[in-house]
Write a structure and sequence with these properties.
- The protein is of the alpha/beta class.
- The protein has 2 domains: about 150 residues, Aspartate Aminotransferase, domain 1 (Alpha-Beta Complex), CATH 3.90.1150; about 220 residues, Type I PLP-dependent aspartate aminotransferase-like (Major domain) (Aspartate Aminotransferase, domain 2).
- About 40% of the residues lie in helices and about 10% in strands.
- The protein is built from 13 helices and 12 strands.
- The strands form 3 sheets. A 7-stranded mixed sheet has the order 2-8-7-6-5-3-4, with helices on both faces.
- Helix 3 crosses helix 10.
- It is globular, with a radius of gyration of 21 Å.
């Protein structure tokens, strides 16, 4: 354990800004670090596609480097990429937007960081589904904002009740965070849910900050992106990236769409954080959007087949309550009420060599859950459950 260096994250040494204490020990790192010390681990923990970026995207990066594209771009992003993003998002969501509505960032992560830390402040409350991607709550709290969690449940496919969200809005509410398809649940919100929340938020003058990095990974369902549900951009920030759809996670290119006024503010902030996103990889983004995108159909059918097999296997596993997730590449099954998912994930890893992520990494109301990723082959998923099922059969969670 000593070489895992957890103390670094938990240090209360006065040299550090106390705000850093809002950043938890990352549950994912903890498991993946432990797994790296073991042999024969099967990972159901991975949060990125298992295939590399398409060849034409890789070639565009090489071409950009060879053409000497190694300097800074304009602060909002490479003009060619801003144009391509405006056209792509405009076509996909049926709303005309201009390059001035877009900021290119270092992955969706920088866009989330900019959006949340630019608007969070003491006395402001943010509505966040629970469970949710682990960046949101710490970034809100780091700047003094408060998180109002809306719990969702496996028995309800982790759907968000829009009325519950609306009822949670009070005078301090500053923004609502949405993430559909969701990490960690794979849940896709129906159009009625997104429309109801976005319209009510605009009416009350609060922001909807929507993380849509899995927007293409949706199986047999309509996808309601916020851009297709809002009447104007005055109260929305939409965040996405090339990481998941185009297998470009390591190339670190994302974007944020908002009103031109909001983009002007965030551009300044962006200059003081990362200056600009990686130049050759912005050219790769242009190639990804302008080039052949037919491979996306194939990855959707690959993920869907994996999802279907995983759902069957979870159904056959004692103590796990699953459901059918409609998007991304995660399932977030529940263990019986009161069972500590953290202990189960650790024991599963130590005793069977299968690495999953404990539910408490993603919020407060899901300590009895596990996140299972299917960004891996059906063969690996089946091998993992050949270990998980007999292990679960031996447990006594009563
Ligand atoms: C919901 C969600 N948002 C954002 C990100 C980060 O994306 P990026 O690689 O573009 O920074 C991830 C990565 O796992 C994610 O799951």
């Amino acid at each position: 354990m000593s070489r895992l260096d957890f103390d670094f994250y938990e240090s209360e040494d006065p040299v550090w800004n106390p705000a850093l204490l809002t950043i938890p020990v990352p549950g994912i790192r903890k498991m993946v670090n432990l797994a790296s010390t073991m042999d024969d681990v099967i990972h159901l923990s991975i949060g990125q596609p298992d295939a590399p970026a398409p060849p034409h995207v890789i070639q565009a990066t090489v071409d950009a480097l060879e053409a000497g594209q190694t300097g800074y771009t304009m602060d909002a992003g490479l003009p060619e990429l801003l144009e391509a993003l405006a056209e792509y998002n405009g076509e996909r969501y049926g709303r005309a937007i201009s390059p001035e509505n877009i900021l290119v960032t270092t992955g969706a992560t920088e866009a989330i960081y900019l959006a949340l830390t630019a608007v969070s402040a003491p006395g402001r409350e943010f509505i966040v589904p629970d469970p949710a991607f682990m960046l949101y709550a710490p970034l809100i709290r780091m700047n003094g904002g408060e998180v109002r969690y809306i719990p969702t449940r496996a028995e309800n496919n982790h759907q968000l009740d829009p009325q519950e969200v609306i009822d949670a809005i009070d005078t301090n509410t500053h923004a609502i965070i949405l993430n559909s398809p969701s990490n960690p649940t794979g849940t896709v919100y129906p159009r009625e849910t997104v429309e109801m929340i976005v319209q009510e938020a605009a009416y009350r003058g609060i922001y909807v900050i929507s993380d849509e990095v899995y927007d293409h990974l949706v199986y047999d369902r309509d996808y309601a992106g916020v851009l297709s549900c809002c009447s104007d951009l005055d109260h929305v920030m939409i965040i996405s990236s090339f990481s998941k759809t185009f297998s470009m996670a390591g190339m670190r290119i994302g974007w944020l769409i908002a009103s031109q006024g909001a983009i002007r503010k965030l551009r300044r902030y962006h200059m003081f954080t990362t200056t600009v996103a990686n130049t050759p990889c912005q050219w790769a983004g242009v190639a990804a959007l302008r080039g052949d995108r037919s491979f996306i159909r194939d990855i959707i059918s690959t993920y869907k087949a994996r999802r279907d097999r995983l759902v069957q296997l979870v159904e056959q596993t004692p103590f796990l309550e699953g459901y059918v997730p409609d998007g991304a590449f995660y399932l977030f099954p529940a263990l019986p009420e009161g069972v500590n998912g953290n202990n189960v994930a650790l024991r599963l890893l130590r005793e069977t060599g299968v690495c999953t992520i404990a539910g408490d990494t993603f919020g407060e109301s899901c300590r009895n859950a596990l996140r299972i990723s299917y960004a891996t082959s059906i063969d690996q998923i089946e091998r993992a459950f050949e270990r998980i099922i007999p292990w679960m059969e031996k447990q006594d969670f009563g």
